[in-house]
Amino acid sequence: MPLTVRRIRPEEYDEVAELTARVYLDEGYGSADYEPALRSVAGRDASAEVLVALLDDKLVGAVTVATRGGEWAEHAVPGEAIIRMLAVDPRQRGSGAGSALVQACIDRARADGCRLVRLSTEPAMAVAHRLYDRAGFVRTPSYDWIPHPGVQLLGYVLTLLPWCDQCGEALTPEGHEACRRALDPPRFCGHCRRRMVVQVTPTGWTAKCVEHGLRSC
Length: 217
What we know:
With 217 residues, the protein is α+β, with helices and mostly antiparallel strands. The chain has 2 domains: 4-160, Gcn5-related N-acetyltransferase (GNAT) (Aminopeptidase), CATH 3.40.630; 162-217, no CATH class. The protein has 6 helices and 11 strands. The protein has helices at residues 13-26, 35-39, 41-47, 97-111, 126-134, 177-181; strands at 4-7, 49-55, 58-66, 80-88, 116-121, 138-139, 145-148, 151-159, 197-201, 204-209, 213-216. Strands 1, 2, 3, 4, 5, 6, 7 and 8 form an 8-stranded mixed sheet that branches. It is globular and about 50 Å long.
């Protein structure tokens, strides 16, 4: 059977928890304190989305993607997707599972109207860095951070739209910090840079582009 990627099923939570913890801890990424988070598959799937890769109907990899905020969307603002905890069985590396999982995350982000995709990775994860480079991610030092003393994470960003929906200028991987933090509805279409027709309602907003349609929140 070919390689496939789909949403995880509840009966696969334990298997993905074991795979993720084994890959990260056996290869020296994270610590015993981080193990509960690695194994919290049901929690991640409740507030984000856990995807699995299957090869010959056998589960060989998993990843978490958060496109609508929540506890697993570390430092994200609305419109940003976060990829977390990519893990592929070491025996199946080279099968394309990692690339397929990352592409599925990008597809989910596009479908949910995100303007960019972000991820954090440890400096020693050279294989993962090459995978992200091939997928179009750009090393973005402004998103580097230290979640815990002694743990340095490197930022990577993939932009999904050519234009910033707040200021109308070119959207770059480094981003526009003031625009990222803006709580206002989008003013420009990120696809074509046209001015949006915006309506604020008691429960959110709608923004319409004459060419690319309606967005809402």
